[in-house]
Amino acid sequence: MKLPEMKSLRLCDRCHGSGEVMGVSMRIFCPSCSGHRYVSTVPRQLVSMRDLCEELYQARKQLAAALEVIERAPLSTGPSSAYYGNNGRGAGGSNFTGD
Asked: What are the structural domain ranges in the chain?
């Protein structure tokens, strides 16, 4: 599956997208991305909340479309397809596989 591509943002190189780095004794917010997990592709430009929300919204739409495609795909084809779904041959019209 192709991952959504963010045009003006990329994962932070310092924290690798976690938003935290290891301090002396505990984990602290990453100073490069301020804990936002993303940095701007334009040098020395802060990530605005509007840009972050727009990029994440577009990624969410692409992932929702991919999930719809996955849900519409048949579970199985061929001899093993009798194991999925309801074939109406079992007790009370349930699935019977013959095992």
From this structure: 1-72
Over its length of 99 residues, how does the chain's per-residue pLDDT go in tens digits?
A: 555 555 677 888 888 888 889 888 888 988 888 887 888 887 777 777 787 788 778 888 889 998 998 888 766 666 666 666 666 777 777 777 776
Q: What are the Cα distances from residue 74, in Å, to 81, 84, 93? A: 9, 10, 21
Residues 52/53/56/57 CA torsion (nearest 10 deg): -150
**Amino acid identity, position 14:** R
Rg (CA), the chain: 23
Q: What is the DSSP letter of 20?
A: E
Residue closest to 53 by CA, chosen among 99, 8, 98: 8
User: Which residue reads 């592709």 in tokens?
Assistant: 41
Total-model pTM: 0.45
Bridge partners, 29 (sequence order): 20
